[in-house]
Q: What sequence folds into this?
């Protein structure tokens, strides 16, 4: 099917719903902010336990990646991202989702088996 760019743009305009920026932008801002507040909570918790700031930051990143990987695995991250949009994409949780989602696509017999070529494919999506 050969169509011009102009015809393609007309088709895209016809079939894509316009986004309501006055709703989507605040939702992305609030949910992204909640993710960052959660990260700050864990960071403060790890410092309160007795870790130095650098170690606490590393533990916080690991915790957020683990939580978002679990949410992706249970199918909840996509539900949150549907409402939050870029609010879930920008923090480190978006990275974890981008790595775990392709791994789940290759799920076979209730086990996730990732070959080196699939691992490269996962990381290319992120970069």
A:
């Amino acid at each position: 099917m050969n169509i011009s760019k102009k015809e393609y743009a007309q088709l895209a305009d016809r079939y894509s719903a316009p986004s309501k920026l006055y709703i989507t932008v605040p939702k992305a801002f609030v949910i992204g902010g909640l993710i960052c507040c959660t990260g700050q909570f864990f960071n403060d918790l790890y410092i309160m336990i007795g870790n130095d700031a650098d170690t606490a930051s590393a533990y916080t990143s690991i915790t957020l990646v683990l939580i978002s990987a679990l949410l992706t695995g249970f199918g909840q991250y996509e539900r949150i991202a549907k409402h939050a949009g870029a609010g879930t994409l920008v923090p480190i949780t978006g990275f974890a989702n981008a790595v775990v989602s392709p791994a789940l696509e290759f799920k076979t017999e209730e086990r996730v088996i990732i070959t080196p070529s699939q691992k490269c494919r996962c990381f290319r999506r992120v970069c």
In short: The longest strand covers residues 107-108. The longest helix spans residues 21-49.
